[in-house]
Amino acid sequence: MYKRVRLKDTVEVPPRHLAEVSPELVKRLLQDKLEGRMDESVGSVVSVTEVHDIGDGAVLPNRPGVYYEAEFDAVTYDPQMQEVVDGEVVEVVNFGAFVGIGPVDGLLHVSQISDEYLAYDEENQQLASRDSNRVLSVGDSVRARIVTKSIDERNPRDSKIGLTAKQPGLGKHGWLKEDRERHEAEAGD
Fold first, then answer.
1. In 3D, which of 115, 152, 121, 155 has the Cα closest to residue 136?
2. Which residues neighbour 62 within 8 Å (Cβ) at sequence distance 6 or greater?
3. What is the spatial distance between Cα 76 and Cα 47, in angstroms, rounded to a whole number?
4. Kind and range of the H or E element at 96?
C-alpha cells in the first residue's frame, strides 16, 4: 500500500554546500539517503516529496559536515499482510516466480500459483501446466495476495514477501479473463 507520510530524519550537509542550505538541497540529500531504503515502520521510501522544516544544524567532533534535522513528506510503499496486489512477473525459476509489486519483489512459490502441477521450462523461462496448457512467463501480469512478510532494514534486497494466487479472483490476468469468459458462456446456456 502506498502512503504519504510526514517523517523526520537527520541529513549531513557537506562543507562545500554550507553556504547554500535550502529545502531543495536538503530534499536532494534526503532522496540520496532514503529512497529505496526499507524501514519496518513505514516500509520502502519511494520518494521524498517536500521538505517542511530544517533545524539549526549541529556540528559533531571529527566530522566535516553539519547535521540538520529535517521534517519532510515522503511517499512510501508498505506491503500489508493479506493485501491483494497486482504485479508483473520479473523472473521465473524452478521453485516459482518473482513478481514486482511496487518497489519490491514478492515470491509466488510454484505451490501457490495453481492447483495444477506446473513444470519449469528453463529454456523458455516459464512455468507450464500439461493439463490446461496454461503458461506463466516473465512479463505476465498477475494478481496475488500477500501472505508472508519479512522486512530486512539493513539489506532491503534481502526482504522477503510471500504471495499466493490460489483463491478465486487471483492469478495471471489472462487466466482470470479466460475464467470469466467461460463462466459467462456457461451462465448464458
1. 121
2. none
3. 7
4. strand 96-101
Q: Which three cell numbers stand for residue 85?
A: 496486489
Per-residue pLDDT of the chain (189 residues; tens, 9 = 90+): 889 999 999 999 999 998 989 999 999 999 999 998 877 788 888 999 999 999 999 999 999 999 999 999 999 988 889 999 999 999 999 999 999 998 888 999 999 999 889 999 999 999 999 888 899 999 999 999 999 988 776 766 667 899 999 999 999 999 999 888 888 888 876
Instruction: Residue 68: count other Cβ atoms within 10 Å of its Cβ.
Output: 22
Rounded distance, CA 87 to CA 106, Å?
Answer: 9
Question: What pTM was estimated for this model as a whole?
Answer: 0.74
What are the cell numbers at 71? 521534517
How far is residue 108's CA from residue 174's CA, in Å, rounded to a whole number? 17
Element containing residue 179 per DSSP (H, E): helix 173-188
- Which residue type does 51 have? V
